[in-house]
Task: structure prediction
Amino acid sequence: MHPGLFPRKPLPKYPEIRLATTPWHLSAHADLSSVDFVHIPTEGTLGITARLVCQRRKLQFSTAMHTKFAEYAKILVGVPESFGYRYLRWFHKPAISTIVQSPGQREELLQHGFGNLDVVGGGVDVAKFKPLARVERVLPRLLFVGRVSKEKNIEAFLNLEIAATKVVVGDGPDHDRLVRQYPDVEFRGYRFGSELVNEYAQADCLVFTSKTDTFGLTSCEAMACGTPVAAYPVTGPIDVVREGVSGFLNEELGVAVRQCLTLDRDLVRQEALRFSWDAVADRFLSVHQRVTDSQFSH
Result:
């Protein structure tokens, strides 16, 4: 079941996320009478409804935390982080397992009072995202991929003092302002499918600027195309990037970028294979198998 089955409205300041407006119609889209288990990967309106239905029908369920919801709420609309984490603890507490993206995220959530956390991580289609023939260029090509918005810290990339071509793939509320402010940067807008793969493959380095991501899927996509990743040493990158192999982490982003330009792209690609969807599916199944086995053993 997914939000596309329901009427939706865009979230203020985040129109890419569209909330289901009639989640109480959930039962019209699924017969839960024969269901043994439910996984709820969203804390939005549909997720809340699914949670209530599961509790009412005494159905076991797991949940997932894919974003730093509390931090984003503070950055975008000024909601105190303590409020956001209070809501998240309430939402996830009844779950038999809460799936998280990385060991770093798990440690952070443990400090915020969460329990029953299992690391599964994110995945990338390594058959779709792959190295391509590259165009020879005089200057290195640096790439940012993501939402052009305040919480992504994109200006850390735009302000890098390095002789390179800078490319931004994505859109968002800060797009028009930054296009005017940085006329030498190539703003490409959204790219999908083969066009997105080509952007990754032609780049010499992906610059991952966010300090609030739980994983960083764009890093995995870049690595699968042979492109190393420069990032800050924070949750997400510390669990995705292997220093000296698939990228570098440094509080001085420019230092990490320059180091990335020396890496072997074939080794970067090999490192990305551990994020294949097959590996992710195996970890997801093992979590639920363990929980099920534990319950039956009692």
